[in-house]
């Protein structure tokens, strides 16, 4: 039983619910339902992956890692049994921040809402797969199987449980990605890779959020971990059936309390920042909240969602017609979007545009002119 598997759906990454500006093109990490909450717990008990669905990796565009070397997917990580955790993905070599770790097409996707019995529907999708696809599906593990039912006699319920345990959001749909499903969950500073669905490629990509040394386990996150340990663990246990023992959840109590305090403060600051959208605070105050979030995240080691955070700051700066700050934040956003979702994304192209012509931002001049300040106070940006 994989204990530490990931919850994939309610992915915390629900990007800035906090941000006033619309997160255009931001990945959608909502939890889907199929009559049930689709959560995702990783699970994967998969021993042999044939490589069928992933990917005929169409030559990746330029993500940071691919500039110098062709992407050799199978060299990036391998899957092993991890005591107490089932399977897990281990870095096969040193991985650089921003590197593309995986691109994977779904085994299949289903709409978020279906007019059919979920067990029958999923079982029907399973039947349409090739023998290899079916095997990949059946190698997945599952949690929350209805009590009192015998799995042997209820293959449709088993199929649904596997889907619910492993599916993740894929744009408007929900999809199964067997390779990605091998990556376990970690909270806050413990997760080091992030996945995103790309509508325009119809596949999922996973990037390294941090440098990952050879031999270290790849961890991602599927829920919002910007909350205290007890809350995170209660949610993960209830939703995904495991007690999280990631590095952050395993901290000694004093350090855990300090981490909880930081995570709670980050969440609070996001809420404070949102007041800008209601004109509750001015642009300089909004930027100050963002700087504080950034600083606390540095202390915590929480690096996710920074592209969006900086893009939101650029939005604020543009609204107040602060060209220098718009450019500085757009550069910051471009850097972090590149790490987390890839340099070959609309978000990065958009930031390039704002760096070149800050006044081209659609929010430009929508609020009173003000010097709001850039990311670096000391340089007066
Ligand atoms: Zn944890």
TrEMBL record:
<dbReference type="InterPro" id="IPR046341">
    <property type="entry name" value="SET_dom_sf"/>
</dbReference>
<feature type="domain" description="SET">
    <location>
        <begin position="75"/>
        <end position="223"/>
    </location>
</feature>
<feature type="region of interest" description="Disordered">
    <location>
        <begin position="362"/>
        <end position="381"/>
    </location>
</feature>
<dbReference type="InterPro" id="IPR053185">
    <property type="entry name" value="SET_domain_protein"/>
</dbReference>
<dbReference type="Pfam" id="PF00856">
    <property type="entry name" value="SET"/>
</dbReference>
<dbReference type="InterPro" id="IPR001214">
    <property type="entry name" value="SET_dom"/>
</dbReference>
<feature type="region of interest" description="Disordered">
    <location>
        <begin position="1"/>
        <end position="26"/>
    </location>
</feature>
<protein>
    <recommendedName>
        <fullName>SET domain-containing protein</fullName>
    </recommendedName>
</protein>
């Amino acid at each position: 039983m994989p204990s530490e598997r990931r919850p994939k759906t309610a992915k915390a990454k629900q990007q800035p619910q906090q941000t006033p500006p619309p997160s255009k093109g931001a990945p959608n990490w909502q939890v889907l339902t199929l009559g049930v909450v689709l959560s995702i717990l990783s699970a994967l008990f998969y021993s042999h992956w044939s490589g069928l669905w992933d990917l005929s990796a169409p030559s990746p565009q330029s993500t940071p890692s691919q500039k110098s070397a062709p992407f050799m997917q199978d060299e990036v990580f391998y899957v092993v049994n991890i005591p107490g955790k089932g399977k897990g993905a281990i870095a096969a070599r040193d991985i650089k921040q921003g590197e593309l770790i995986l691109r994977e097409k779904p085994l299949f996707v289903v709409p978020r809402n279906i007019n059919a019995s979920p067990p029958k529907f999923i079982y029907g999708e399973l039947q349409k797969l090739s023998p290899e696809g079916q095997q990949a599906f059946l190698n997945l593990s599952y949690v929350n199987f209805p009590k009192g039912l015998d799995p042997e006699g209820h293959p449709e319920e088993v199929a649904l449980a596997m889907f619910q345990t492993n599916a993740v959001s894929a744009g408007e749909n929900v999809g199964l990605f067997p390779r990605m499903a091998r990556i376990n969950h970690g909270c806050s500073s413990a997760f080091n890779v992030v996945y995103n669905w790309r509508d325009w490629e119809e596949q999922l990509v996973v990037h390294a959020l941090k440098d990952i040394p050879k031999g270290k386990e790849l961890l991602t996150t599927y829920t919002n971990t910007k909350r205290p340990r007890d809350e995170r663990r209660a949610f993960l246990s209830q939703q995904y059936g495991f007690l999280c023992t990631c590095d952050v959840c395993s901290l000694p109590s004093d350090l855990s309390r300090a981490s909880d305090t930081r995570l709670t403060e980050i969440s609070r600051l996001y809420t404070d920042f949102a007041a800008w959208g209601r004109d509750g605070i001015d642009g300089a105050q909004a930027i100050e909240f963002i700087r504080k979030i950034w600083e606390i995240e540095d202390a915590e080691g929480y690096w996710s969602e920074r592209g969006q955070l900086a893009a939101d700051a650029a939005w604020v700066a543009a609204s107040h017609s602060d060209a220098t700050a718009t450019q500085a934040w757009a550069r910051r956003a471009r850097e972090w979007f590149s790490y987390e979702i890839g340099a070959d994304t609309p978000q990065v192209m958009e930031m390039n545009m704002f760096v070149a012509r800050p006044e081209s931002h659609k929010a430009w001049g929508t609020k009173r002119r003000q010097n709001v300040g850039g990311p670096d106070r000391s340089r007066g940006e």
